[in-house]
């Protein structure tokens, strides 16, 4: 549809009549009235007062009063771009169809339009982009089978493995509800009770916690999904985006320096690169595992605090993504964009990963609140193929999602009066057999420290040094009890790791590596004392 160029009436189209001095470029109200004075409010006499019936003014100011929608509860600060995904037609050396029948991967050189949004996680929508924080990497594929969203982060693992802990994790990381200041005492209070976070913390407090910008970072789906082929066979799959531009991370010192000059450097970098025709590109790789528990592994393949060792589960390239178009309007296309882990296409399925299952409820739920019940009618979110539903009405209904030949009276199914009908496509569903006691319990192979220790040892020296400095500085304001607990956990990851953080905090270690009791004696219980009231 076009605005303002013509009006359709009962008698067909008629030309918009412009009075003299008006054209299509003339400023109007949203009601289409030409605006003749946009500088002065209508007032009684030159000096006022203003009058309430001034529709033009009220329309303008009240729309302004409603310019914001609630920002995302996490990942509020972000930017994005459009582009395409192009298939290789293979997963490594094998035809990709052996593993998935998802059409978005099939054939060679097939392009699917995408929308990507990059973000930081914890702070508000205008916060600095230099902060230590995971980076979001969300991709919406507008595929021929409808939308597929791959909602990932730059880091390949996460803090927790059960969605029920997410609100607590985020509350600990977000500003204190009293002081409104992010507080390491609260963060490490939570982390000291969360051994599964050690792997993520080891990444996050190293330079990997501050990517130089969005172009120079990886992406990962983090959670374990499934691929389903035409026979209904399933594979467990993890997704990874590898930047063709390379990877670059910042030390805390470099980030501090940059933040003093520009707190939107990552947004600016992406926007300007695309404007200059320097289009960023990522290759999409997958790791595959036969569906199953894999008891032979020392971790659970559904545990998102773990990496799947690359030697055992090689990265198989399946395609590449190029970002080549900036949004025309940030709010319409990026702020209102809605990504969710539930948005899969045929040939993909959910695994029992408890984080993935919780996330899948959370995203669409928050979007119905953040944007509105009809958020999928917005052009940025709606699939680029036909949509025909029996869903009707609700706040801000923009159009009726009806089929071209659907009887508009029939918004239900089944019907004999030309309503919508189910697809006749026959597919072999993936039908996993599930049996078990309904219970709340931890998974068996928690193995919280091993991969964190491996990570510590494979870092380069400068990365390890920065990690230690950052942890020591961040733990300084914490109580000795929390410091001790954290050091003990770093110790369990790697003795050198624990020792260096502990020594940085002034702890003395005995020969056998345990902390000197003199230090332990200083440990005072923090129970009942709020961090905000310390001192
Ligand atoms: C955004 C929930 C874990 C990546 C969000 C939003 C919610 C949410 C409510 C805001 C969405 C919106 O307003 O549109 C959760 C829950 C999690 C979880 C409940 C754990 C149970 C993760 C993990 C990742 C991740 C593990 C990384 C793989 C993202 C990204 C965004 C986001 C990238 C921003 C999407 C965008 O750019 O619009 N999450 N999240 N989240 N989350 Fe999660």
Automatic annotation (TrEMBL):
| GO molecular-function term, one example from the UniProt record | metal ion binding
The answer to whether UniProt assigns keyword Oxidoreductase to this entry is yes
Q: Which residues form the active site?
A: 75, 153
GO cellular component terms attached to this protein's record = cytoplasm
- EC number from the UniProt entry: 1.11.1.6
- Catalyzed reactions per annotation: 2 H2O2 = O2 + 2 H2O
Query: What cofactor is needed?
Result: heme
- Positions binding heme in this chain are 363
Name the Gene Ontology biological process terms. Answer: hydrogen peroxide catabolic process; response to hydrogen peroxide
Q: Give, as one word, the top-level EC class.
A: oxidoreductase
Q: Which residues cross the membrane?
A: none
Q: Provide this UniProt record's keywords sorted from A to Z.
A: Heme, Hydrogen peroxide, Iron, Metal-binding, Oxidoreductase, Peroxidase
Give the PANTHER family listed for this entry. CATALASE (PTHR11465), CATALASE-2 (PTHR11465:SF23)
Membership in a protein family: Belongs to the catalase family.
The molecule here is called Catalase
Q: Which organism is it from?
A: Pontibacillus halophilus JSM 076056 = DSM 19796
